[in-house]
Structure prediction request, 214 residues.
Amino acid sequence: MDSIQGDVISYLKAIPEEKWDAYILRQDMFYRHYTEEMCAGIVQKAKETGRRKAFEILEEGADIKELIRKYGLNVKDAEDKEFIMPDSINFAEYHDGNILISKRLLEALSQKKEILREALGDFKVRDIVFCHELYHHFEDIEAHLENAGITYEVKPLPFIKKKISPESAGEIAAYEFARQMQKIDFHPYILGIIGLYEYKKETAEKIIENIMKL
Prediction:
């Protein structure tokens, strides 16, 4: 098994934030029907929404344990088989007040602790992942936050119009929320790529290649 090195992590950190957001945006089912203006609007509003919610929570001054208690969350380090939708890139999951964090991700990144610190600075992987899923909890309990409150009308077929709420907006908002909550200067998606690299290098490299094409 090939293991990721510090130069690769530094390379990931240097990838422009816009490329990470563009890659996430392209995972939407109806992405090919988006206009350039729609794409820019989704990213901008999603990031603003995630940032605004983070500032609101930070003002409360609560730590992770207090947030878990306050919102009645059940947080668990889980095996792959425990996830509702287990797959090679699914490192965390929120559902109905429950947050699962992949043991596989935590173990892979724990083994790279020193390299990660040197390339990305001081941070706690688990706290970043938790904050991302915490935003999804807020989407669950505050309707205006779901997918950053964004809706668009698209035409999947010439004579059919469909109103959609892009799921990518919720993901982009959640990443921005986690970034602000943990005061990190890299895109949190990097952690998933590093974790994936440790046991599916080819898949991770393919994702990086696709991101760099954007």
In short: The longest strand covers residues 152-157. The mean pLDDT is 92.
